Amino acid sequence: MTENPQASAPRITVLPVQPGDPPFRVVEIDGEVIGSATAMTDVLIAAATAGIPVHDLDDPAAVRWVGGGKLSWKPH
Hints:
Layout: E1 12-18, E2 24-29, E3 32-37, H1 40-49, E4 63-65
Parallel strand pairs: 1-4
Antiparallel strand pairs: 1-2, 2-3
């Protein structure tokens, strides 16, 4: 039996830092862009608004960070 790789994919994806004033990261929930975040607290607020409990931002089953982890908020 083959497992579906999407079954364990996190519902929240935080994309790489974009230049701006302030720099920001695009946040997706269930594959749809829901807004931007300028800090990890914005990611938690977006998750709570969507009804998704996040207990650990480092848990890859909860959040997928692209282009840097939860502490990356400046463009490279």
